[in-house]
């Protein structure tokens, strides 16, 4: 029994690593890049968008999988987008009520999560044809892969561009969040190119190169 548990844990770990490094949709297929390139100049905003993406992706996959026998094929895509849009709208309203400053900072990039290519692709190709548990695992793995990329890119761009980390934490936690910010330079000054849109492409390129390198290293390891 213990051996089977360890084997199952190893399989899940390998599947996650495969999704993160070899098949990360943001680094290999380059889809769903709008939030990545737009709000990743701040680690806090990257975290917020990553959590929103996780919730939307997971709930959409669960609902699509649960209703896959009830939705007629001709109306499937429209229903999937409607499900996603409903979840995003609920999150949008909650953020306007509880975190209005954060919602204002995210701007239009929160609503367009409803039309994110990655969510539409995985719900159409996978969740609509698999069980609830399989769809949940697929959504969690892909969402965590996206969240990891957002955290890495957000940390890189904020650290280089502003010389700080978590400088916008007050948007999540209020005034107390200002004490959580870590400043490495005076007046949040750094290499401003990293905070500009061009910095997003540079950082993305570095992540793609790093992902390819790690994927090659993992592939070259002998299987025991």
**Total number of beta strands:** 2
**Can you tell me the number of structural domains?**
1
Instruction: Tell me the overall shape.
Output: globular
Q: Strand pairing plus helix content: what structural class?
A: mainly alpha
Uncertain residue ranges: none
Quickly count the helices: 10
Strand content: under 5%
Q: Quick check: average pLDDT?
A: 86
Helix content: 55-70%
Radius of gyration: 19 Å
Separation of the first and last Cα atoms: 20 Å
- Main sheet attributes: strand count, strand direction, barrel closure: 2 strands, antiparallel
SSE string:
HHHHHHHHEHEH
Write out the strand line-up for the largest beta sheet, numbering strands in chain order: 1-2
Describe the structure.
- With 224 residues, the chain is mainly α.
- It has one domain.
- Helices cover 69% and strands 2% of the residues.
- The protein has ten helices and two strands, in the order H-H-H-H-H-H-H-H-E-H-E-H.
- It has helices spanning 2-22, 25-29, 34-39, 43-66, 76-98, 100-106, 117-125, 132-162, 170-173, 197-220; strands at residues 164-165, 182-183.
- Strands 1-2 form a two-stranded antiparallel ribbon.
- The protein is globular, with a radius of gyration of 19 Å.
- The two termini are 20 Å apart.
- The mean pLDDT is 86.
What is the structure about, briefly put?
The chain has 224 residues and is mainly alpha-helical. It is 69% helix and 2% strand.
Question: What's the structural blueprint in terms of helices and strands?
Answer:
Layout: H1 2-22, H2 25-29, H3 34-39, H4 43-66, H5 76-98, H6 100-106, H7 117-125, H8 132-162, E1 164-165, H9 170-173, E2 182-183, H10 197-220
């Amino acid at each position: 029994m213990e051996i089977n548990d360890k084997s199952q844990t190893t399989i899940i770990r390998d599947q996650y690593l495969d999704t993160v490094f070899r098949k990360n949709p943001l680094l290999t297929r380059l889809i769903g890049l709008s939030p990545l390139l737009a709000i990743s100049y701040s680690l806090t905003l990257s975290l917020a968008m990553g959590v929103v993406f996780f919730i939307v992706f997971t709930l959409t996959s669960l609902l699509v999988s649960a209703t896959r026998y009830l939705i007629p094929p001709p109306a499937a895509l429209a229903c999937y987008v409607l499900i996603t849009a409903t979840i995003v709208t609920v999150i949008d309203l909650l953020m306007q009520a509880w975190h209005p400053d954060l919602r204002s900072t995210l701007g239009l990039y929160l609503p367009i999560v409803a039309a994110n290519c990655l969510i539409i692709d995985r719900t159409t190709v996978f969740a609509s044809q698999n069980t609830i548990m399989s769809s949940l695992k697929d959504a969690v793995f892909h969402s965590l892969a996206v969240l990891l990329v957002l955290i890495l890119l957000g940390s890189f761009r904020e650290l280089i561009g502003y010389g700080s980390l978590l400088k916008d934490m007050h948007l999540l936690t209020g005034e107390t969040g200002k004490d959580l910010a870590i400043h490495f330079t005076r007046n949040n000054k750094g290499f401003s190119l990293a905070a500009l849109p061009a910095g997003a492409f540079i950082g993305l390129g570095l992540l793609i190169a790093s992902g390819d390198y790690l994927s090659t290293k993992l592939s070259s390891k002998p299987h025991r």
